[in-house]
C-alpha cells in the first residue's frame, strides 16, 4: 500500500487552514466548487487532489495555491514567496480584488528578479 503520510499531512493542513478561516467543510466545498464528500476524503488523506483541485481549494481558503502545491509535493518550497502572499490574502482591510492585484504584482517582481539572476 502507498505511503499515505504526505496525503495525511496535506489533509491536516487543509483542515487547519479551513478551521482558522472559520469555514465549514460544506462552505469550503461551495467556495472551492469541490464536492463535499471529495473534500472530506482529501482532508482525511484518502484522496490525492490534482493541481487544479488544489488551486480551487486555495482560492476558497484565500491562501496561495503554491502553499498547497508545496504541501502536496508538486512544487519545491520557495519560502519567501508564500509568506508574503499569505499575508496579503489574510489582510482583513483589503478587498479580494486588491489582494489579487497585489499578489500578481509581487509574483511579477519575483519572476523579473529570477530572470535577472539567471545567466
UniProtKB/TrEMBL annotation:
Protein name, entry field: Helix-turn-helix domain-containing protein
SUPFAM superfamilies: lambda repressor-like DNA-binding domains (SSF47413)
PANTHER family cross-referenced by the UniProt entry: HTH-TYPE TRANSCRIPTIONAL REGULATOR (PTHR46797), METHYLPHOSPHONATE SYNTHASE (PTHR46797:SF1)
UniProt lineage: Bacteria, Bacillati, Actinomycetota, Actinomycetes, Sporichthyales
GO CC field: cytosol
Top-rank taxon: Bacteria
Pfam family for this entry, one: HTH_3
Native source organism of the sequence: Epidermidibacterium keratini
Keyword terms: DNA-binding
Domain HTH cro/C1-type positions: 14-68
Example of a GO MF term: DNA-binding transcription factor activity
CDD domains to which the protein is assigned, alphabetical: HTH_XRE
Amino acid at each position: 500500500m502507498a505511503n499515505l503520510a504526505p496525503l495525511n499531512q496535506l489533509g491536516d493542513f487543509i483542515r487547519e487552514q479551513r478551521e482558522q478561516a472559520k469555514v465549514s467543510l460544506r462552505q469550503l466545498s461551495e467556495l472551492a466548487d469541490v464536492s463535499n464528500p471529495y473534500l472530506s476524503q482529501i482532508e482525511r488523506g484518502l484522496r490525492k487532489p490534482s493541481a487544479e483541485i488544489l488551486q480551487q481549494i486555495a482560492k476558497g481558503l484565500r491562501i496561495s495555491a503554491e502553499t498547497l502545491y508545496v504541501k502536496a509535493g508538486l512544487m519545491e518550497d520557495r519560502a519567501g514567496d508564500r509568506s508574503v502572499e499569505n499575508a496579503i490574502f489574510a489582510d482583513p482591510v483589503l478587498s479580494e480584488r486588491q489582494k489579487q492585484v497585489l499578489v500578481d504584482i509581487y509574483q511579477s517582481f519575483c519572476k523579473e528578479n529570477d530572470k535577472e539572476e539567471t545567466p
